[in-house]
Amino acid sequence: MKKFVMSYSTGKDSTLSLFRMINKGYIPYGLLVTINKDEEKSWFHDIDRDLLLKVSEELNIDLIEVQCSGNKYEEYFEDKLVQCKRDGVDYCVFGDIDIESHKRWGIDICNKANMEAIFPIWNEDREKLVYEFIDSGFKAVIKKVENKFLGKEFLGKVLTKEVVEEIKKSGADPCGENGEYHTFVFDGSIFKNKVDIIFGDIYVGERTSSISIRSGK
């Protein structure tokens, strides 16, 4: 069996990559998510652990937590890959599109674990990818925005083609690959059921703004 772990952010790009791998016949072994153990949230996207567990349940894919803090992120990530390799997992999948430093990091960390890094959407047209995600039936909300491109009014919006057009008019990349916005995926063809979510407070910072999300059940 061609088993893989998905380096998963809960965002649209990693979800589309997961979707493609499953369609190609690969077997998902787990969702590999780095957790800031001091805050019980995902490291980069600030998704509560309870919500991550709900996503794992609805995708029917185990959550593999990389619990870390401080500057040992890479060390803990590598250790978890080594454990997966011992369990017969040969591939780690990433949702990066065209940022070379991100790809190099993924390849290097996988090499250390004697595992192959796969990038299913690498070097594809950014705009086409976001439309493929939407056309494939996935639903995502905008969780975080970079203030110099998008206002807080985008927070909590479901990502539709109309919203993508609004994002383009702002001057931001339609796919948000440069960090202009981040998404949380809550429904789609590979979900057993929709993940019910409740929005909380909006935080407006100097560089970015975000909206808190928690499980509705």
Any overview of this molecule?
The protein has 217 residues and is α/β, with parallel strands linked by helices. It folds into two domains: 3-118, Rossmann fold (3-Layer(aba) Sandwich), CATH 3.40.50.620; 126-215, putative n-type atp pyrophosphatase, domain 2 (Alpha-Beta Complex), CATH 3.90.1490. Helix content is 32%, strand content 28%. It has six helices and ten strands, in the order βαββαβαβαβαβαβββ. Strands 1, 2, 3, 4, 5 and 6 form a six-stranded mixed β-sheet that branches. Strands 8-7-10-9 form a four-stranded antiparallel β-sheet. β9 (197-204) and β10 (208-215) form a beta hairpin. α1 (12-23) packs across α5 (126-135). The chain is globular, with a radius of gyration of 16 Å. The model has no long low-confidence stretch (mean pLDDT 94).
